[in-house]
Amino acid sequence: MNSPSRVITFVNGAHFIDHYSMLIFAAAVIVMGPALGMAYSELLPYATPGFVAFGAGSLITGWLGDRWSRRHMMVIFFVGIGLSMISVGFVQTPLQLGAALLSIGIFASIYHPVGTAMIVSYAEKLGAEMGVNGVWGNLGVASSALVTGVIGQYLGWRWAFILPGAITVLIGIAFAMMVVHEDRKGSKQAAAQVRVAKEDMWRVVLALLIVVIAISTTFNAVTVALPKLFAERLADLTKSPALLGVIAAGVYVFGAMTQYTIGKLLDRHSLKSVALPLSFVLAPLLYFAASLSNLPLIVVSIGIVMGAFGQVTVNDAMVGKYTTEEWRSRAYAVRYFVGFTAAGVSVGLVAWLYDQGGFTMMLRAFAALCLLSIAAAIILPREIRTPAAQVN
Question: Do domains 1-184 and 193-382 have the same CATH topology?
Fold first, then answer.
């Protein structure tokens, strides 16, 4: 049998890599534009197919995870996404760039439906493990801006893709050697013991659908736009790509801490009691951020990432609590298909809104979208906890 701690450690590392790989381009595009002779708004849309594949591919990868092997799918994830990152470092034309970024998105689509289901299967306390797993993903987001900024400044943007790609392939080889194909016949169901009344299940589905679309779109837009936003609005503080990466990384660290805290709260309280107050965070902060710069923008950005990453933890825990083992990868596949497909659209939307009215228009548009998360939290029903869930 696999050691739960070993599997969870690898899966947490995969979450780090997944978000890191998807956001290298968002940070590198600042220096790639001049090198390729293209403007920011012209170059950014080449990431759209990759982000769409990030979500759309999850339907197939989640099905394969349930019907074939989650372990085998994770081996493919590590090796495939590593080679795809390396390939970006060798592109010569915008078309090649789009194809390489699409490849990253395809392999990145494996992690969330497959890796998250593995976390639920091996976790003793779902909320805490979801929180820790979220921290790893958030650190991947933060490190992407930081490491890409540093490597891009000192070695060039191509190495910002090649180095992490090579490391990822090596991790994949280690995973293949240390984790065996899993037998899920005796998997625990404790994580799925929380229930709602059958007649209220439609409210869970509707709330999840609404909040996933709103938060996933906003989450992706913020993480894609933040490096460029800081480059423009923090010009009075610094113009160094490396230092801007450090600032962005520092902002994301607060999001990581929030995910851990939210995860612990979900083990003690109902989803609705955690989700409702959290839903009121994003809309006002995004609205105020539209007119801010320098230090005030950094402070408000911390609040934005805390709200966004906290919501992601709630969404993942909701699916984990309400689905059974045999359907879990497919349930996560649907959740991430909807979320990441909406998020993929946000890349083009960021470019269009930026072209129309800069970051002022972009941030206020997403503030309006986040009002939907309040409605989603309100319609969530009360939970019916079984004795097994209370013990867990």
Answer: yes
